[in-house]
Amino acid sequence: QVQLVESGGGLVQAGDSLRLSCAASGRSFSRIPMGWFRQAPGKEREFVAAISRSGGVTNYADSVKGRFTISRDNAKNTVALQMNSLKPEDTAMYYCADTGGYNFWGQGTQVTVSS
User: Fold this and answer.
1) How far apart are CA 115 and CA 112, in angstroms?
2) What is residue 29's DSSP assignment?
3) Nearest Cα to 68, choosing from 54, 53, 47?
4) How far is it, in rounded angstroms, from Cα 57 to Cα 33?
5) What does the alpha-carbon distance between residue 90 and residue 5 come to, in Å, rounded to a whole number?
6) What does each of the 115 residues of the chain score in pLDDT, given as a tens digit?
7) How far apart are CA 52 and CA 77, in angstroms?
8) In DSSP terms, which residues pair with 38 in a beta bridge?
9) How far is Cα 39 from Cα 108, in angstroms, rounded to an integer?
10) How would you classify the pairing of strands 92-98 and 34-39?
């Protein structure tokens, strides 16, 4: 069992940066590929970024490529999402989850980008 808790969201202006963090419980974190997803009001949840177990492989949605960076620290059981050059269309609830089976999800952290 893994519990995930996101933090770091907030209200920012277009062009600003935010760093989201996801803290995981459980001793098996390093065996779990992880990802970030987001859901805007009235829209379906969408993939944002993913990272392999070791952190050596990452991939991104086209909409965030070049602006967002996913990373993980297996010693601290955390996965982060550095978001730069934020746009109003990045406004959403952001969730971290295991991308191995999508069994574990955090409660989400709200990101709001004003124009």
Assistant:
1) 10
2) G
3) 47
4) 10
5) 20
6) 889 999 999 999 999 999 999 999 977 899 999 999 999 999 999 999 999 999 999 999 999 999 999 999 999 999 999 999 999 999 999 999 999 988 899 999 999 999 9
7) 14
8) 46, 94
9) 10
10) antiparallel
Task: Give the phi and the psi of residue 94 in degrees, each rounded to 5.
Answer: -105, 135
Residue position matching structure tokens 């406004």: 91
What is the maximum span of the chain, computed from C-alpha positions, in angstroms?
41
Neighbours of 15 (CB within 10 A): 11
Instruction: Write out the two tokens for 85.
Output: 């050059």
For residue 41, the SS3 value is coil
| Beta-carbon count within 10 A of 36 CB | 27
* Residue 36 Cα distances to 13, 39, 65, 115, angstroms: 21, 11, 13, 23
